[in-house]
Amino acid sequence: MSHSVEERRIVELLARGWGDEKISRELALSVRTVQRRIGQLMDEYRCASRFALGFKLGRHRLNGST
Questions:
Q1: Percent of the residues in the chain that have a pLDDT greater than 90, as a whole number
Q2: End-to-end C-alpha distance for the chain, whole angstroms
C-alpha cells in the first residue's frame, strides 16, 4: 500500500502525538482535510480507532512493508 508524501507526513506527526489542528497548521491543510486523510487511512487498514491505525502501521513497518 503506497502512500503519498502528505499521508506519510500525517502519520509521522500523529506518531509524535500531534493533534489535528497542529498537523493542519504544519502542513498548511484544513483541519477537515487532515481528519479526512486519517479517516481514509483508517478505512484502508480497516481500523476503528487511531490507536489501531498506529498499531497496524507500526507492524507493517516492522515487517518491512510500506
A1: 55
A2: 6
Q: Quick one: CA dihedral 19, 20, 23, 25, positive or negative?
A: negative
CA distance 56 to 24: 23
Report the alpha-carbon distance of residue 57 to residue 64 in Å, rounded: 11
pTM to 2 decimal places? 0.81
CB 45 within 8 A of CB 57: yes
Nearest-angstrom CA–CA distance, 65 and 38: 19
* DSSP 3-state of 15: helix
What is the maximum alpha-carbon separation in the chain?
A: 33
Q: What are 52's three cell numbers?
A: 489501531
